[in-house]
Specification:
Elements (H helix, E strand, L loop, with lengths): L1 H10 L11 E3 L10 E3 L10 E7 L2 E16 L5 E15 L4 E5 L11 E7 L2 E7 L8 E8 L6 E9 L25 E5 L1
Parallel strand pairs: 1-2, 2-5
Antiparallel strand pairs: 3-4, 3-11, 4-5, 5-6, 5-7, 7-8, 8-9, 9-10, 10-11
C-alpha cells in the first residue's frame, strides 16, 4: 500500500515555481497545506552530481539532481512544495561493454525514476519506479553519506517493492521483470 501511495504521488507531480510563505525544514511531519518543505541545511546538494561504482563486473553510473520547490499533490487535493532529490542511472556490463539500462537522458522530474523519501541523519531512503515496459516495478534502497569522505557514498539495503499498475504486465511474476539496480552494497565515488 505504501508503494502504491508513492506511485500515485509520483504520477501526479508537477514542477512549478511560485512564492510560498510557509517554509518548514525537510522531513517535517506536520505542516499546513501549501507549505514549502525546504532543504534548509543543504543536505540534498551534497549528493547532487554523478556517482560511479563497480560491482559483479557491472559499472553503475548514478546522476542525482535537486529539484527545488517541486509541487507535490495528493489525490485528496492537498499539496505542498518540496525540495526533492531525484536520480537516474545507467548500467554497463564490463565484460561485453553492453549497456543494460540507461535513463540518463531523462530531463523531466517525472522521468528520473529514483526519488528520495526520507532523510535520517546521513541516510537517504530512496525509491525506484520503473517504466510501464517493466510493469512499474519498484524497489527501495538507501544512500549513506560518509561524513569523513564527501566524495563517497554507500548504496545499500536494496529491497524489492510492488509491481504492476493500470496497464497489463507482460511478465508472469515479479522475478521475471528485469531489475538493473544493484542488489548488494556498493561504494559509489563522485565524478
Amino acid at each position: 500500500m505504501k508503494n502504491i501511495i508513492k506511485l500515485i504521488l509520483f504520477l501526479f507531480t508537477v514542477n512549478v515555481s511560485c512564492q510560498v510563505t510557509n517554509i518548514v525544514p525537510l522531513n517535517t511531519v506536520y505542516y499546513s497545506d501549501g507549505a514549502y518543505l525546504k532543504d534548509l541545511n543543504n543536505e540534498l546538494s551534497l549528493l547532487e552530481g554523478t556517482w560511479e561504482g563497480t560491482l559483479n563486473n557491472k559499472k553503475y553510473i548514478f546522476q542525482f539532481t535537486v529539484f527545488y520547490q517541486h509541487l507535490e499533490t495528493g489525490a485528496d487535493g492537498s499539496y505542498e512544495y518540496e525540495d526533492k532529490l531525484s536520480g537516474k542511472f545507467k548500467v554497463i556490463d564490463l565484460g561485453t561493454n553492453q549497456v543494460l539500462y540507461d535513463n540518463l537522458n531523462a530531463s523531466n522530474y517525472e522521468d528520473y525514476g529514483i526519488l528520495n523519501f526520507i532523510i535520517l541523519g546521513n541516510e537517504f531512503m530512496m525509491g525506484f519506479f520503473d517504466t510501464p515496459n517493466n510493469c512499474y516495478n519498484q524497489a527501495d534502497f538507501s544512500i549513506i553519506k560518509d561524513p569523513n569522505n564527501l566524495n563517497q557514498i554507500t548504496y545499500k539495503s536494496f529491497e524489492m517493492g510492488d509491481y504492476g499498475g493500470l496497464t497489463p504486465c507482460n511478465y508472469n511474476t515479479q522475478e521475471d521483470i528485469p531489475m538493473f539496480l544493484p542488489t548488494q552494497e556498493l561504494i559509489l565515488t563522485k565524478q
